[in-house]
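Lecture notes, unit on binding sites. The following record was shown on slide 14. It pairs a sequence with 2'-O-acetyl adenosine-5-diphosphoribose.
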Amino acid sequence: MGHLKPRYTCPLMGIQLDPELVDAIRAAESVVVMTGAGISAESGIPTFRDELTGMWENYDPEQLATPQAFERDPETVSRWYDQRRANIAKCEPNAGHQALATLERWQTKDRGRRFTLLTQNIDGLHRRAGSANVVELHGTIWRWRCTKTGREREYRHIPFPSYPPLSEDGGLLRPAVVWFGEMLPEREMMTAQRECESCDVYFSIGTSTQVFPAAGLIQLAHASGARTVEVNPETTPVSNLVDWSLRGPAGTVLPGLVERVMPPTGT
Ligand code: OAD
């Protein structure tokens, strides 16, 4: 992607989009979207690496988001994740989540084409916004796994009665999320790679593209011939490599983009 400079950076307010981007999305047989913590920022969920509010600015990921941390101190780790689960439960999908769900319905139901939403987020807000084909590469905070039997199920009751919570099998419960040093779920990763190898447009939305292998998927999409779009108020390591860099918050940029790409209702 080195030769491709951002063809268009829309001003933060007001969305004048490059017609070529609008045409590329309309022509796309297959669209892949990758989201990160930034798309949930406007729902009130902290990101990881933002200077002031980033989670990792206030907590050491090595102390909380690794198998070793859980082994060492299952009470603190499970309590921290359950607190995140309780906070997330108070948050709603924002206009960015909803715009992606609208774009997916138009692409798949109205046009019979493909749309895959890959997310690094564990908050479940894409599904709550109505997105259907969601691939949760880092798992979900709504499912917890028994460390004794490996059995996983959804837990919606908040908060757990004690920490670390116990499973019905008498083992400790851990969140069914990917921790540092763990492999991503194989089926989800294979789906992601397959879709990136055959998509026409790849969106990178609200991610600092620093955590691999998820961060490497944009390179795979580009190498396979996809046009690439970034939506982020800040620059990232791929900002100078994508075809279009839309420099703004997802909750503003995405509704504007979807409004211009989709035909006016009733046509
Ligand atoms: P980061 O916190 O690393 O990056 C969030 C990105 O969102 C930054 O580039 C922000 O500029 C951008 N951003 C902030 N507000 C935004 C908004 N309103 N609209 C659009 N973008 C916005 O979060 P991730 O890239 O998701 O993994 O982090 C990737 C992984 O690192 C996470 O899944 C997690 C973390 O450690 C694990 O815990 C395994």
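Take-home: The longest strand covers residues 139-146.
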